[in-house]
Amino acid sequence: MLFAVKDPYIAIGGLKIYYYAICIVLGMCVAIFLAVKLFKKMGYDGDDVYVYAIAIIPIGVLCARLYFFIFPYEDSVHDWSRFFHFKDGGLAIYGGIIGGLITTVLTAFIKKQNIFRVLDSFMPGAMIAQAMGRWGNFFNEEAFGNLVTNPKLQFFPYSVYISNLDGYYQATFFYESLWNVIGVVALLLLIYKWQKYRVGTTTGGYFVWYGLGRFWIEALRADSLVIPNTTIKVSQVVSVGLIIIGLLVLMFTYSKKVLHDGFRNRTFPVLATIEPFVANKKTSGQATDDCAVASVREADTDKQDNTSNSLTVPKEDDNPTANTDERAEVCDDVTASKEVNNTFCNVAENDTSDESERK
């Protein structure tokens, strides 16, 4: 029978290697590979990704397990004494996402790296890992939808045969996997092609896209986790929260005046409201003071130039038209000088902030 699972594992002697584990591990490897590439484009050391992975993976797995135990299936209760019996199955992706996000933010704070740049580098890889992981649910015959009784609809990818229940059910695992693949393509196109890309776009886009997909797909699933003593699907509640957070991140990101095209030109201007978490205040303050001193000196020079020029300007009675033209030229020179000085100061502040951030 097409797309029916015979055994969920590969037997090598007395050792059983489950396809679910293979899908999860391969997804992690692809996610790390992609994150290294994006980390380098962000101006960071690609090897830092392995530091994050060492922290994120174990904590994410534990949080996925914890989420599964806190929110059981409807009309069921988990035995907490078997929490560490991972061979029994039971990992919830939303728990892994929440644990991974918290770990990433804390690690970025400790390493004094821009939180949104780090998250933007990880989100495409995380989504492709989720897409690959969902095929582990196929081999375990889980994450399926409603029973399909119409013979004309009993075909993959609309439905999948579940041997334990001896029937065809909606292939919601595949719906989510495909949704995530489309999301990855969209995020990468934004990063590499969209001229108005800003730091934070990938993070907000991931939250909104995955939240929307998971919300409608969860409505079809027949094996959803629920809030204890209710019939409310907890993943739909979390999805709504994720969408709201994503929209807030995007609103915050695009309310700023400075475009963040760091993936392409590696200049990476830093958001003023994020900088206190990741920048060296002392170095940034020194750059600001230097620019202030330069501005004062430039202003003094302007005054001296104005005084000097006023001595050579003809009297108004001699030639009123020439007098007006020469004064206009003096004003233009002063304005241009101030604009050049302000540009220099802004560039100096950005360069200093970037340098302190990379250290």
Concise overview:
With 359 residues, the chain is mainly alpha-helical.
How confident is the prediction overall: mean pLDDT?
Answer: 79
Poorly predicted sequence stretches spanning 5 or more consecutive residues:
258-290, 292-297, 307-322, 324-359
Q: What is the assembly state of the chains in this entry?
A: single chain
How many separate domains? 2
| Ends distance | 58 Å
Describe this entry's structure for a reader:
α4 (115-140) runs parallel beside α6 (201-218) and α5 packs antiparallel against α6. This protein is globular. It is mostly helical and 359 residues long. The strands form two sheets. The chain has a two-stranded antiparallel sheet. Strands 3-4 form a two-stranded antiparallel sheet. The longest helix is centred in the last third of the chain and has 39 residues, at 320-358. It starts with 8 loop residues before the first strand and ends with a helix. Helix content is 64%, strand content 4%.
Quickly list its features.
mainly alpha, 11 helices, single chain, 359 residues
Structural topology:
Elements: E1 9-12, E2 15-18, H1 19-41, H2 48-70, H3 93-110, H4 115-140, E3 159-162, E4 167-170, H5 172-193, H6 201-218, H7 234-253, H8 262-265, H9 275-278, H10 281-312, H11 320-358
Antiparallel strand pairs: 1-2, 3-4
Helix pairs in contact: 1-2, 1-4, 2-3, 3-4, 4-5, 4-6, 5-6, 6-7, 10-11
